[in-house]
Amino acid sequence: MSIPADPPAPTTWPRLVIISCALSVVVGVVLLAFSWPAITAAPRDLPVGIVGSEKQVDQLADAIEDGSDGAIELTRFDDRDAAVAAITQRSVSGAVVLGQTPMDAPEVLSATAASTQVSQMMDGLSSTLQAQIDAQVRATVEQQVQAAMSGQKAPPASGETPQKFEFPVVTVETTDVVPLSEDDPRGAGLSASMFPLVIGGILGGVVITLVLKGSGVRRLIALLIYAGAAGLVLTGVLQGLYGALQGDYWANAGAMALSIAAISGTITGLAGLVGAAGAGIGAAFTMLIANPLSGAMVPAEFIVQPWGAVGQWFPPGAAGTLIRDLSYFSDANTTFPWMLLAIWVCVGAVFTVINLPGRQSPRSADHAQLGAGKEAAAPAHAAL
User: Fold this and answer.
1) TM segments (predicted)?
2) Closest of 207, 268, 285, 363 to residue 293, by C-alpha
3) Which CATH class is domain 46-149+163-176?
4) Distance between CA atoms of residues 262 and 265, nearest Å
C-alpha cells in the first residue's frame, strides 16, 4: 500500500514578494531593451553624397551643418553617375545633385529600399532646398525691381506697357534610385521578416537543446537540417507569397538558412558550454540585446553610437543587412555579412559538438550509479 506523498510546502511570503518584484524588473528590462532604440533614434552622421562646384558644396554644407545638428555627413562626388553608384553600393544613403547655375533645378536622390525613414529625411532635405531656392529667387527679383524703379525717372505714359518681372520657377526634383517593390511599397514585409527569423532561430536553438538527447553531434546535425528547411519555408512565404523579398530565391533562402543557423548555433553553443542554462542565456542575449540593436526597427545610423555599429556584428544585424542587400542592392558588397554569419555558425557548431556538460567519464558514471544503488538499498536493509 503506497503512502500518499505530503503536499509541497507553500511558498513563504518573503520568497513570494521577491519573485514578484524580480518579475517586474524583468518586464522593465524587456521594455527598456525594445523601446530604447526607437525612443532615442535620431540620425547621426548619416552619409549623404553631394555633386556640385566647390563653391556650391561649401555653401550647402554650411547650411546643412547649421540645420541638421550633426545628422548628416556630406561626401562629395564628381558627377551624378558616381553618386548613384554609391547609393546602389550602399556607401551613402542619398545624394544631392546641384545645378551648374543657381537657376538650375537641383536633384535629390534617395533609396526607399534602404530605409523608409532615411528616404523621408531626404524628402525633408528636398523641402529645405526648395525653400532656400524660393528665397533666393524672390530676393533676386526684388533687387531687379528696385534697380528698375530707381533707374526710371518718370512713370510710364498712358497706353505704355509697364515693364514686367517674371519669377523664374525652379523646382527641386526628387528621384528614388532604389524603390521598394510594388508588392511591398512600404517595406512592411521586409521589416517584418526579421521577427520570424529571430524567433525561429531562438525557438530552434532552445528546442534542440532541451528536447534532443545524445551527443553534441546529434544536436549539430539537427540544427543544420532545421536551418536549411526553415530557410526554404520562410523564403517561400516572404518571397513567393508576399513578394517582400526580391532577387534570386535560392540566394535569399541560403541567407535565411545561414542566419537561422547563426542564431540557433549561438544558443546550442552556449548550452554546449554551460548546459541548459546556456540556452536561456543565448535566447535572452538574442532577444534583448542583439535584436534591438540589429537595425530592424530603425536604421543602424539612427541608433546611439557605437551601439548601432556594434549591432551589425551580431547575427540579427548581419542577417538584416544581407537579406536587404540581396533583395534590392545587387551592387553592394555582401562579403562582410556572409562571412560574419558563417563565423557565428562555425563557433556555435564547435561549442555544440564539445558539449562539456554531456561529457562524463565512464568511471564517474559508474560511481554515480553505484552511489544511487547504495542509497536505494539502504532503506531495504533498514526494513530488514
Assistant:
1) 12-34, 194-214, 220-245, 257-290, 336-356
2) 285
3) alpha beta
4) 5
A 10 A CB-CB count for 275 gives 14
Residue of 53, 135, 141 whose CA lies nearest to 99: 53
- Residue 300, judged by CB atoms within 10 A of its CB (0-12, 13-18, 19+), counts as buried
Per domain, the residue ranges of the chain are 46-149+163-176, 188-362
C-alpha cell at 187: 517595406
What phi and psi, each to the nearest 5 degrees, are found at residue 46? Answer: -70, 125
Interatomic CA distance for residues 276 and 66, integer angstroms: 54
Instruction: Give the model confidence (pLDDT) of 359-373 as tens digits.
Output: 654 444 444 454 545
Write out pLDDT tens, residues 370-383.
Answer: 454 544 444 444 44
CA distance 162 to 159: 9
CA-CA-CA-CA dihedral for 335, 87, 119, 72, to nearest 10? 100
**Owner of C-alpha cell 526554404:** 232
The three grid cell numbers given for residue 108, joined into one nine-digit string: 535629390
User: What's 52's DSSP letter?
Assistant: S
pLDDT band of residue 167 (cuts 50, 70, 90) is low
The residue type of 360 is Q
Does residue 292 have a cis peptide bond before it, meaning omega lies within 30 degrees of 0? Answer: no
Q: List C-alpha distances in Å: 297 to 90, 154, 201.
A: 18, 67, 18
Greatest CA separation found in the chain? 138
